From TrEMBL:
Gene3D superfamilies: 3.10.450.50. Residues 9-145 form the SnoaL-like domain. This is Nuclear transport factor 2 family protein. InterPro entries: NTF2-like_dom_sf, SnoaL-like. Signal peptide: none annotated.
């Protein structure tokens, strides 16, 4: 492989790794936990703070935790990839996660690990994802993740300031995203819901 081919291979791998990170965020925010599972290798480990363990346990923990989360939005920032051969990369990605927690119903608050008041609360978590990516059977996926927390902002959630009739995000199949995907169904390019 010449230098140009190696450069193009790295660019392709970098694009695939960043797409995996984006799919993770989409999966959590839209409650598509099968998508979240798909970004990890089957034997991967995740050290998420209050959950540390395998991927089956992570999916159970996230599913239970997000019963108490009314809205969720992950934003990714700096992404530094340190190559450790052709099939291994160490990836540090900055993240800010905004979440609106449901009012305390006796169940939701305990799932998120916070005491939530009457109108709910808004959180802003600043963290970094420290990932070991491995390419196996042609696919880049997370083999090991550590979430390094930087800070947390927590405040009472105000009533919605949006005017009636505005298109609002949801965490299910009634989110506007799925209308866009339906429009793109005959499209033959890259899928909006997978790595292909």
């Amino acid at each position: 492989m010449n230098e140009n081919e190696q450069f193009l291979q790295r660019l392709r791998a970098e694009d695939e790794i960043k797409r995996v990170l984006q799919l993770y965020c989409r999966g959590v925010d839209r409650r598509e936990f099968d998508v979240v599972r798909g970004v990890y290798h089957a034997d991967a480990m995740d050290y998420h703070g209050t959950y540390n363990g395998n991927i089956d346990g992570l999916i159970q923990w996230i599913t239970r935790r997000h019963e108490g989360v009314a809205q969720s939005m992950h934003l990714l920032g700096n992404c530094l990839i340190d190559w450790r051969g052709e099939d291994v990369a160490l990836v540090e990605t900055y993240c800010v996660a905004y979440q609106r927690l449901k009012p305390d119903d006796g169940v939701s608050a305990s799932n998120v690990g916070l005491k939530v008041g009457g109108s709910g609360q808004q959180t802003q978590v600043r963290c970094r994802y420290l990932d070991r990516f491995e390419k196996r059977e042609g696919a880049w996926k997370i083999a090991n993740r550590v979430v390094a927390y930087e800070s947390l902002l927590l405040e009472d959630a105000p009533e919605s300031p949006f005017a009636e009739g505005m298109q609002m995000a949801t965490r299910g199949r009634d989110d506007p995203l799925w209308g866009l995907i339906a429009l793109a169904a005959p499209h033959h390019g890259r899928s909006l819901t997978s790595k292909k």
